[in-house]
Design goal:
Elements lengths: L2 H22 L3 H22 L9 H9 L4 H6 L2 H20 L7 H32 L4
Helix pairs in contact: 1-2, 2-3, 2-5, 2-6, 3-5, 5-6
Amino acid sequence: MNKLSLEKLNRYQFIMKRLNDAIEQGFEIQAIAYEYALIEDRFNSILKYLDIQLKTNKVKDKINVIRQIENAMIKELLPESLLEQILSFINARNQIMHGLAMITLEPTFITSVAKQGRELIKKLNQYSIKIKKSVQKDKKIP
């Protein structure tokens, strides 16, 4: 593993530890911020593996670009159901972050969003690794 990959792995592990600690200690909003950052990072990596460059930071835009790829292997490696779950998480995250000072949010809702995000990160990371391996092996995606 090269130095950059090792640094990224260490950073990912550090953030995952902080994310898990935040949930366990009741800092769900902090956990949700970590989750969104990791989701964004995973999509940046996926697009890099696919040799696609975007000038947007919005995860929704990245998902829309991935949806437009007409490649069966990508559709299999990054299933629509996962993309929908991520979009649902992002909508809930936006509701929490943008409504924090304006509306009363149920603590159970915030906790469930934080826990959902943690599971999505784990899944997305697994799919990202599969895509990276497939691209390295085939060198012809998308």
